[in-house]
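Reviewer 2 asked us to include a model.

Predict the structure of this chain.
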Amino acid sequence: MDKWGVESYLFIKTIKTMKQLRKPNCPYHGNKEDVVRIIYGFPMPELMDRAERGEVKLGGCCVTDNNPEWYCKKCKKDIHEVLIAG
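Predicted model (structure tokens):
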């Protein structure tokens, strides 16, 4: 297979997915303890329970390309973009 074939594509896609899964530090105070993922879509009862416990934030049913992925409970602010130094 050539150097930019399917295997390279899958590797790059996996690395991007892994970066998205990493919990970021809050850009406002630098801590990640209070940062939770924002979940979009219609929540099932289990997800509602997690939201009530503060494990996730419900983001609503409208999904766009600009929706934030993370929320800081301490600052009460959405984290729109996470820059990962590499």
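Helices lie at 6-21, 45-52. The CA atoms of residues 53 and 69 lie 18 Å apart. We have added this to the supplementary material.
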